[in-house]
Design a protein that fits this description.
This protein has about 180 residues and is of the alpha/beta class. The protein is built from 8 helices and 5 strands. It has a 5-stranded parallel beta sheet, with helices on both faces. The chain is globular and about 45 Å long.
Length: about 180
């Protein structure tokens, strides 16, 4: 199963819950990128720009999706910007788009102290304006990639995981 969506929608938390419940390994593409690059995402952006970061992200995700056993992947919010990555996601089967309003995303990001040091702003806009702009720009890519969408605004991570788990349990081909 692949979890897509803007940052702050719950991808990493839900992947962790599902991993524990189902005994399936979970990976966070951002953490894997940092591990392989030996740098934080902010450092990668600083040294290589967004395009360089997306190059690394594309390779890391391809490696993760090549794992032959079922996994749960919490992708970076912009991973869907690359067509090759979107195509790989669609080949997997279950791609869950976790959605949240810009206001909810902003609250969650502000509550997560790691977010500000780990993930750089992508524009010079105010935070809420940037979130709104990027969600709208990415929306067509999320829509064409996802097999299901879950609005997370009023759901706890456990409730979101319940919905994802139901999807997995009802999937006979076990391509998570």
């Amino acid at each position: 199963m692949i979890l897509i969506g803007y940052r702050g929608t719950g991808k990493t938390t839900v992947a962790s819950i599902l991993s524990e419940r189902l005994s399936i390994p979970a990976f966070d593409s951002d953490k894997e990128i940092e591990r392989k690059a030996g740098k934080s995402i902010a450092e990668i952006f600083s040294f290589h720009g967004e395009s360089g970061f997306r190059d690394i992200e594309e390779l890391v995700i391809a490696d993760l999706l090549a794992i032959k056993t079922p996994i749960i992947l919490a992708s970076g919010g912009g991973a869907i910007l690359r067509e090759t990555t979107r195509n790989k996601f669609r080949e997997i089967g279950n791609v869950v788009w976790l959605q949240a309003s810009p206001e909810t995303v902003l609250k969650r990001i502000q509550a997560d102290t790691a977010t500000q040091t780990m993930r750089p702003n992508l524009t010079s806009l105010l935070p809420l304006e940037e979130i709104d702009l990027l969600i709208e720009k990415r929306k067509p890519f999320y829509e064409q990639t996802a097999t299901i969408a879950i609005n997370t605004d009023n759901l706890s991570p456990t409730q979101i995981a319940d919905k994802c788990e139901n999807l997995i349990m009802n999937d006979n081909n076990r391509t998570y």
